[in-house]
Amino acid sequence: MNEKALFWVLVALNSLDVLLTTLIIMNGGSEANPYMQLFIDQFSYYGLVIAKFPPIAILGIVIHFRWDQLRESWQRSVRRILFALNIAFSTIILYSVAVLFGYI
Questions:
Q1: Which residue stretches of 1-104 are H helix?
Q2: In angstroms, how far apart are the furthest CA atoms of the chain?
Q3: Closest by alpha carbon to 8, among 86, 87, 67?
Q4: Residues 42-57 pLDDT 10s
Q5: Could you tell me the pTM of the whole model?
């Protein structure tokens, strides 16, 4: 999978994470990540977007506008990091779905 596809999968997974977290909180649950909870406490649900947007935006700018300027070793590293992040967020989403439907 190329870097742009991996990036858009990451965007989709993060969007789904924000949606599921919001639903869990609306149903009486809480955010498990203390860093994200701090943003929720300060900015309500908008805190989720505020915390997630800057790193993803920076990554998107690098991938879409500066990719060809990166050395090949950096490109390989970024692809590996994107792949690992997608696996991590997929796991978080599966956990959130289990919490939302009362399995955990």
A1: 3-26, 34-43, 46-65, 72-100
A2: 47
A3: 86
A4: 999 899 999 999 999 9
A5: 0.89
Domain ranges across the chain: 3-100
- Is the backbone of residue 102 left (phi > 0), alpha (psi -120 to 50) or beta? left
Task: Tell me how far apart the alpha carbons of residues 91 and 20 are, in angstroms, rounded to a whole number.
Answer: 13
CA separation, residue 62 to residues 3, 68, 74, 88, 89 (Å)? 11, 9, 11, 21, 21
Q: Is 82 exposed, middle or buried (0-12, 13-18, 19+ CB in 10 A)?
A: buried
3-state secondary structure of 93: helix
Q: What number of other Cβ atoms are within 10 A of residue 87's Cβ?
A: 11
